[in-house]
Write a structure and sequence with these properties.
Layout: H1 19-25, H2 28-31, H3 34-64, H4 70-80, H5 85-92, H6 95-116, H7 130-139, H8 143-167, H9 180-245, H10 247-271, H11 274-305, E1 313-316, H12 317-334, E2 338-342, E3 349-352, H13 354-371, E4 376-384, E5 387-394, H14 401-404, H15 417-422, H16 427-438, E6 442-448, E7 452-460, H17 471-480
Parallel strand pairs: 2-4
Antiparallel strand pairs: 1-3, 4-5, 5-7, 6-7
Helix pairs in contact: 1-3, 3-4, 3-7, 3-9, 4-6, 6-7, 6-8, 7-8, 7-9, 9-11, 10-11, 11-16, 12-13, 13-16, 16-17
Amino acid sequence: MTHTFEFNRPRRVSPAMIYPVLDWFIPANVKESSELQQRARMFLISHIFGPFLGHVITVYLYILDPTPDYALWVLAASITVFWTFPFWLKWTGWYNTLAVLSVQNLIFAILWGCYHYGGLSSPFLPWLLTVPLLAFFYLGSAARQRLLVLTLIAVNLSAFYVIYWESSSFPEHVPLNELSGIGIISTLAAAVYVSMMALYYGNIVASQSELEHEVRSHLATARQLQEAKAEAERANRAKSEFLAKMSHELRTPLNAVIGYSEMLLEEAEESGSDTQTMDIKRIHSAGKHLLTLVSGVLDLSKLEAGKMELFPERFELGGLVDEVVAAAREAAAANGNRIVVACPDRGVTVETDMAKLRQAINNIVDNAAKFTRNGTVTLSAKIADGVLHVSVRDTGPGISLENLANLFQNFGESEGATASKYGGTGLGLALSQKLCRLMGGDIEVTSEFGKGSCFTLKVPTRLRSDDAHDPWVLSATAEQGRPAVS
């Protein structure tokens, strides 16, 4: 048996691990600015850990001084006060004010220690070099902050000099020769303190550099995606314009094939040649199917290129419904379906592009007849509040939720077994939706999987005449994808 031993690797200590503790002290108004929050964290680190280093010196002085007096107690108190600043920050939120007071308290502690323990040779003097550095960490490097800190240092040094001038000497609580050891400790403590703050600041700078690098990388990627998108849009527009211009060249030969096949079909039927009749019927059927596909592709291209125009005309709703039903009966009967019509407003006049409206309804009805087997396709048409509602309900297999999302996309035919069983290109629904939107309407669909679907076309009963021959205005409506009626 083989045994595998795993050893736990030591966890890397990151400054970010103490952020939750530091952020507990930071009020909401400070957290609103990420830069100010970083300064507040440095402020808190300094005030939580700094006094420990400072009290190493006071303890050493307590050991050296056989009779400690007010000088040591004031120094110890001024260092201890630093521990209260985090709580004052949490309670008041006055970050800048507390930062200035902290700098002033640090200057006071240093000069008080220098005055009572060694004068100009005091081991506290190296700590004076930390004042500008801490002020930079707390307040930033702006000119106003620099001037404020330099003013504080100048005022305190002036006061220190005036007091020394009046007393003409420094008090001696501990002999100067005994302060050499504490000088080393003080210098080391100051070095550790400055190094701690510098390392934390370096970590912040490194983190910001990484973030800036990530931002630059994402911006470069975004620019590349925008350029690729623009190039794809240009290529798509060029394709759509080309196909729109090719409409006549593609449709004319197909119409010729269909026309000649109809002539040959009549001759074959008159001559009684059943074999030729069946073959010519196949040619005629294939030609009409190909013309339907080509027309769908070209119409979509014209819509996308903004070349599709509307030509409104006045017609009765009942006549339109009769034409749609007549065109769909053969396809419905081929699958054993029956068509039911409900049109209470047959005599109402509608003014819109009849050809495009009929094309949109035909696509929906043909789709319902294709997917329904031995069922019913119900075509309902009515007018309400100036809007024509045409509903096509079937008893077919229905549409799953995942297919509903892509139902009106170009070439959005159902995938898998449905596509292989029923066939189709997926152009009909996309074209019908774009045509309805071009006329100021839209298509709604409801479906329950296994129980059938219902498509409802909604278009205004009267098309604005000033937009009827303006393809750019109409195509913009289609591109927006927002129905003009509800």
